Amino acid sequence: MYASRVRASLRGWGGVGAMAVLCVLALAFALLLPCTQPRHDDSGARTAGPGVAKGSQARAGECEDSEAQKQTLSPSGADGPTIDAIKSRTGAKRKLVVGVDQNSYHWGYRNPNTETAQLEGFDIDLVHRIAEDILGDPDAVQFKAIPTSRRIPAIKDGRVDMVVRTMTITCERLDDVAFSAPYFKTGQQVLAPKSSPVKGYDGTLAHKRICTASGSTAYGKLKADRDAGDLPASTDISTTVPNQLDCLVRLQLGEVDAVVTDGALAASQAAQDPTVALKGDAFTTEYYGVAMKKDATDLVRRVNRILVDYRADGWQASYDRWLSATLGKDSDPSKPPAPQYLRKS
Questions:
Q1: In this predicted structure, what is the pLDDT of residue 70?
Q2: d(CA 291, CA 159)
Q3: Residue 100, CB half-sphere, CA atoms under 13 Å: how many?
Q4: Do residues 107 and 101 make contact, with C-beta atoms less than 8 angstroms apart?
Q5: What confidence tens digit (pLDDT) does each residue in 149-173 have?
Q6: 75-to-160, 295, 298 alpha-carbon distances in Å
Q7: Coil, strand or helix: which one is 257?
Q8: Are 319 and 334 in contact (CB under 8 A)?
Q9: What is residue 49's DSSP assignment?
Q10: How would you classify the pairing of strands 96-100 and 162-163?
């Protein structure tokens, strides 16, 4: 169709001379094309051009979330500039600075029943494992409580070395940060009072007020589906809050009718409040990753190497301790997929 329009336009200003110019341009493009196309090495890994073996995670305009969530830099135990800077901190400041949640039950939760109100949960276990590998001390961590909506700014501003906070890997977020390999599988679900007529992510949400966290994948999904007509137009999605747990409070106060959030978090919230329950099945597939600065490639590779070991020894024990009571003893539905490693530079 494009070629037909070109030929038609050529007749208007044309003749043989114009067609000759077009042929020259086409030939030049054909000669240059091999230099601009991605190549593959013997293992099938894509490279960025002739002789170049440097990989980078996909960007929003060139990926689908299902694939982007699996792709990451290849594992490596080598230090680099980012890790060197962390290790060079002295005295009490020689710690890994990590953005976490302190309100997500069994994920990142400041337990008031412990002597020092310690942070605990599945994400916190992973942080300790990373700190032990990089600094030789699992407690060499400075935790910073980061709202859901401030996770990416905290990384970009350099206030934290990484964020380990039930953060879903998405194409859009890859424009701003780098992610490790996935470490947990989940999906969006609806949370509502047990007595509610809401049955799930369907027509029963018509005329209902839904709460989501600002900057969350839940809000993005709701807006996209409502705009596309896949969610009732009368569904009110205007209530957004800084933290996921704030939605549960709004639900308890009767200010909203339902909450949409990751099923893993929703299950933990249901465990905190026996009057609410998950409604319907998960309607997306998402994976959590450790988020870091885009140029912190040495740190990304190091975390990926740590995750290789952690999935083999540590992940299951942490799941059994924190999540089996709310998500079930069978951990297979929550296990992340095998990562797709980009070629190491």
A1: 83
A2: 13
A3: 27
A4: yes
A5: 899 999 999 999 999 999 999 999 9
A6: 21, 16, 9
A7: coil
A8: yes
A9: B
A10: parallel
Half-sphere exposure of 301 toward its Cβ, with a 13 Å CA cutoff? 22
Helix (H, G, I), strand (E, B) or coil at 288: strand
Contact 284, 230 (CB under 8 A): no
CA–CA dist 292, 156 (Å, integer): 8
Q: Where are the alpha helices (DSSP H) in 240-296?
A: 244-252, 263-272
Residues in Cβ contact with 193 at an 8 Å cutoff, skipping those fewer than 6 apart = 251, 275, 276, 277
Residues 183, 118: contact at Cβ < 8 Å?
Answer: no
- Per-residue b or e along 27-42, where b marks 16 or more CB atoms closer than 10 Å to that residue's CB: eeeeeeeeeeeeeeee
Tokens of 100: 């976490």
Beta bridge partners of 211: 239, 259
Query: How far is residue 179's CA from residue 162's CA, in Å, rounded to a whole number?
Result: 9
Amino acid at 14: G
Sign (positive or negative) of CA dihedral 34, 40, 42, 44: negative
- Residue by residue, what is the 3-state secondary structure of 75-108? CCCCCCHHHHHHHCCCHHHCCEEEEECCEECCCE
| Helices 122-135 & 315-322 angle (0-180, nearest 10) | 150
Q: How many helices (H) does the chain have, and how many strands (E)?
A: 12, 19
User: Which residue's structure tokens are 């912190």?
Assistant: 296
CA atoms within 13 A on the CB side of 137: 9
C-alpha to C-alpha distance for 88 and 285, rounded to whole angstroms? 39
327-340 confidence digits (pLDDT tens): 999 999 999 999 99
Mean pLDDT of the chain: 84
**How close are the terminal C-alpha atoms of the chain, in Å?**
41
The structure tokens listed for 260 are 């949409």
- Structure-block tokens of residue 284: 């997306």
- The token pair at 86 is 């962390």
